[in-house]
């Protein structure tokens, strides 16, 4: 993707500001003369920012404005190490709400909708991001947060919610509960805005069919505002991102070299206006591609593909690299298999053993499924696996992000 002149000017201004004051990036970019950056190619020689950098800046080392300008703190979960603390100014909060409001509009949501928000609140960016955007749009907001499915469904029925905001895992749980209780005729949902984790086509179709809604993918991450920096449109051909707020590159995860439009690689983000904690060339670990050409919807905003996986989702078993997306693609072609699966990897008697638990439909034959899935796994993934068919609903559902692969070898 060719950098626009206005993007380049905003990045240059950001770099000058950051290198002229005491902050994280003054040290990170030490020895670099901003005046020597005269082109996109020069910009692409700047060092990447990694999550490890952000953890080392804990707690408030990322702050790039005086403390009195910080109005809010958000944080990553910290499940894999020291949490990342992101400070926000009032302008950051307003800009984020503007982007999120655009997301709702792109999905056809209006101020006449009733937006039912199930992601978590607090330090996590999800819940409050959905809420700020809805309020900016002027829609009725129902800030449920996660959990208490009985109350979720009661409010959904009584308040006649029309838009569901959720992770794919929790949307599936709600869809299954609605079907189980036979209350589908009382649900007024029209749209689902789904974020925070990747999900396959099979899961998408189940949720859409069981809830009777049109689904939209939303993208974002705590380090870069939160959810709301990109969303799919009604044509479901990628996600439009707000290139007047973020500049996106796609790089080869191994070499760090920029890839041409259309090629799959790692998303790298530079913020154009962020004040509290700006980011320059931040490696997200998310895998996608820039989709060339114009979208049928006519939007001027460029597109990235839906998230295809993460560089850190990959596991190596018996010398073979395995991504969740490969398993989802394999299951998509098997009629009796559901969208839900779980992988357990163990090391026993000197050998790696991979066990794949798959939910199968009620009318499917477990013995036949075991052999069909086993043969498909060997053919498409390249190694043998122990297949364990289970009933629909047997695998755990999550209010947050689902864990698909458990590696018990370490």
From TrEMBL:
Entry-linked InterPro entries: Adenylate-forming_Reductase (IPR051414), AMP-bd_C_sf (IPR045851), AMP-dep_Lig_C (IPR028154), AMP-dep_synth/lig_dom (IPR000873), ANL_N_sf (IPR042099), PA_CoA_ligase (IPR011880)
AMP-dependent ligase C-terminal domain mapped to chain residues: 319-409
UniProt xrefs under SUPFAM superfamilies: Acetyl-CoA synthetase-like
CDD domains for the chain: PaaK (cd05913)
Segments passing through the bilayer: none
MF terms (GO), sorted A to Z: ligase activity
The AMP-dependent synthetase/ligase domain, residue ranges: 62-270
Keywords assigned: Ligase, Phosphopantetheine, Phosphoprotein
Source organism, top-level taxon: Bacteria
PANTHER family named in the record: ENZYME, PUTATIVE (JCVI)-RELATED, PHENYLACETATE-COENZYME A LIGASE
Name listed for the protein in its UniProt record: Phenylacetate--CoA ligase
Native species: Eubacterium album
């Amino acid at each position: 993707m060719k950098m626009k002149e206005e993007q380049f000017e905003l990045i240059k201004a950001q770099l000058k500001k950051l290198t002229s004051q005491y902050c994280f990036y003054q040290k990170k970019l030490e020895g670099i003369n901003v005046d020597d950056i005269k082109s996109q190619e020069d910009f692409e020689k700047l060092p990447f920012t990694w999550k490890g950098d952000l953890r080392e800046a804990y707690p408030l080392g990322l702050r790039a404005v005086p403390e009195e300008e910080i109005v809010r703190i958000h944080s990553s979960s910290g499940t894999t190490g020291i949490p990342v603390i992101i400070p926000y100014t009032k302008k950051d909060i307003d800009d984020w709400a503007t982007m999120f409001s655009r997301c709702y509009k792109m999905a056809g949501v209006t101020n006449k909708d009733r937006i039912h928000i199930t992601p978590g609140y607090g330090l996590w960016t999800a819940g409050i991001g959905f809420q700020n955007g809805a309020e900016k749009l002027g829609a009725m907001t129902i800030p449920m947060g996660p959990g208490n499915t009985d109350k979720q469904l009661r409010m959904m029925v009584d308040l006649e919610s029309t838009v569901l905001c959720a992770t794919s895992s929790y949307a599936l749980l709600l869809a299954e509960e609605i079907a189980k209780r036979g209350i589908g005729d009382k649900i007024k949902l029209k749209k689902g805005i789904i974020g925070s984790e990747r999900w396959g086509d099979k899961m998408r179709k189940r949720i859409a069919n069981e809830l009777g809604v049109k689904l939209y993918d939303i993208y974002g991450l705590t380090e870069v505002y939160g959810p709301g920096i990109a969303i799919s449109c009604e044509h479901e051909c990628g996600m439009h991102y707000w290139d007047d707020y973020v500049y996106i590159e796609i790089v080869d995860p191994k070499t760090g070299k920029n890839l041409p439009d259309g090629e799959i690689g790692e998303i790298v983000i530079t913020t154009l206006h962020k004040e509290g904690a700006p980011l320059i060339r931040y490696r997200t670990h998310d895998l996608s591609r820039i989709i060339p050409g114009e979208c049928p919807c006519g939007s001027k905003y460029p597109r990235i593909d839906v998230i295809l996986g993460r560089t850190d989702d990959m596991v190596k078993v018996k010398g073979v690299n395995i991504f969740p997306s490969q398993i989802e693609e394999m299951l998509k072609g098997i009629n009796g298999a559901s969208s839900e699966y779980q992988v357990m990897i163990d090391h026993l008697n000197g050998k790696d053993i991979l066990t794949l638990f798959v939910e199968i439909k009620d009318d499917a034959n477990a013995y036949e499924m075991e052999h069909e899935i086993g043969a498909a796994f060997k053919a498409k993934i390249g190694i043998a696996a122990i297949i364990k068919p289970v009933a629909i609903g047997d695998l755990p559902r999550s209010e947050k992000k689902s864990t698909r692969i458990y590696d018990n070898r370490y």
